[in-house]
Amino acid sequence: DQQVKQNSPSLSVQEGRISILNCDYTNSMFDYFLWYKKYPAEGPTFLISISSIKDKNEDGRFTVFLNKSAKHLSLHIVPSQPGDSAVYFCAASANSGTYKYIFGTGTRLKVLA
Amino acid sequence: NAGVTQTPKFQVLKTGQSMTLQCAQDMNHNSMYWYRQDPGMGLRLIYYSASEGTTDKGEVPNGYNVSRLNKREFSLRLESAAPSQTSVYFCASSEMAGFNSPLHFGNGTRLTVT
Questions:
Q1: Which residues of B lie inside 8 Å of A (Cβ-Cβ)?
Q2: φ, ψ at B84 (rounded to 5°)
Q3: What is the pLDDT of residues B17-32, one digit of tens each?
Q4: Do B40 and A41 touch (CB under 8 A)?
């Protein structure tokens, strides 16, 4: 049972435009959410996170939105750059003592120059 | 600043062979983790160590054992490798387990079992 879902395996966006990556979750106990970026042959790199007490968190070109009622989060990248081309994973955890981060299956973003 | 270092980077094993994947972090983090990444499956937690001296099973622990050797090092052992264990293995660490503490990953070990 996939508790964290990224339903779009891939996404192509023109340079300078907005990239929107989506993630859905099923476990209502999740209260901390993260986005990671992964280049080929490298480990995932932490991008941005959000706690369930917020609905938005911004860091430069990256903004994460959380809709708790819909159990949905999204990552917005504005403006998109060719260097943003990578696989993006969302992850979630519940601070209930289980200490487990559950990852989605990833979305491959391609930013076209 | 090395962060999380994994060795080896690549390994080919025959079915039934054993090996240990090594991981070390230099960030003075309390918690360490082993994940595997398979196509279409995302990253799945094998084992984790919330703090030195403790280890716990993750989502897919069967066929693996771990040792938290000290605060810096967390190794993953395959006692009798199977083709189903062909995967990319990532070690990660965090300042502490839970408590909104992001994971920091190594660059992975690509393992093929024939």
A1: 4, 31, 33, 35, 40-45, 48, 50, 56, 58-59, 90, 92, 97-100, 102-108
A2: -65, -10
A3: 999 999 999 999 999 9
A4: no
